[in-house]
Amino acid sequence: EKSELTMYRAQIMLEAGQTQEALDYLFANERSISDRRSLKEVCANMYLTLGKNDEAEKIFRRLVDQNPENVKYFEGLRKSLGFDDSTPEADQLQMYAELLEKY
Hints:
- The protein is an all-alpha fold and 103 residues long.
- 75% of the residues lie in helices and 0% in strands.
- It is globular.
- The relative contact order is 0.10.
């Protein structure tokens, strides 16, 4: 119960535009959060929002390692590497080829 309340409170902070405060709150209360994967997902996305792509990349790589079938993790990794719709397709394909070799 406390785990869900902690995540919910952070979500409310995030919706209020308090991304850094929500991230700090999660880290301060991470021991009370039982769903570690959800915590990683939320933190990685908050890092993206804050422009802390290096931190987001580390987490998304761990998430891909844990579940390489989750497309959302690859999309987060793609964003954390600075790829967007304007990134040349060849660059994106290279990233996916490298990941394909690993998985």
